[in-house]
Amino acid sequence: MNLTRWLLALTITSDCSLVATLSAHAASPAQIQAASGYGSTAPTTQSAPVTTANINQRVVSDKIAPLLSQGYALIGQGNYDKAIEVLQKALKLDKDSITARRYLAYALVRKGQAKQAIGEMQKVSKQTTPNSFDWYIFGDAYYEAGGLNHAGSCFKEALHQAPAYDAARGGLIKTLVRQDQYNEAVAQVQQGLKNARDAKSKQYYAALYDGVNQAQLIHQGHGDTSAQSPEVSSRAYLDEGKDDKASKPVMIVPTGN
Known about the structure:
Layout (H helix, E strand, L loop, with lengths): L2 H6 L20 H6 L6 E2 L22 H13 L2 H14 L4 H13 L3 H14 L4 H14 L2 H14 L4 H13 L3 H14 L3 H21 L10 H7 L13 E2 L6
Antiparallel strand pairs: 1-2
């Protein structure tokens, strides 16, 4: 098995990569305007909890609704360059759009522009109380930027808000592995298995369990490094997943802000 390939799937590189796959079905401008929700993501087959505390009531303006819909569709297609362009245009028209900035940050992480993504998410956090999706993006961005302690804290906060958030738990697991905290990583895998509600999620965590064990063996100087150095292989191992779809978060319909 190619270790580098195995880990790229978990990170959502194709990014935060932020999994099921991102939904490729964008809402129409009319649906966006009618929406009253929050820009969060949930595990592939599970819904994120919605409370009055994390619902934004601001209705999106006519001028950016089509751009949000287009940007959402482009993210679902993995066309992050174009999504960034479209969402930046939306922010020029409405600098206070939380959804546009949130999705822009997501696309930036997917494109490897982690520091820029962190900056956008810091702006979001000043506009609204971060939800689980926000903390996931924060965590993924810090992970890609090498800020592992911050990444771990962000993934934990995402899980505090949404305990069944598989993508956030996967992010925490890969962070723990890069910090050589293998026992803690295994504990998170076991918690994920305990929370798993379907076969795909169970398959995801089973793959992660294998990945953690293999990464630990490589760190100890054992295991198949696939012609890579132990340091490179062990750190990259959990950025891929045997089940690409099971590790990616699903973005909800763009919200009304």
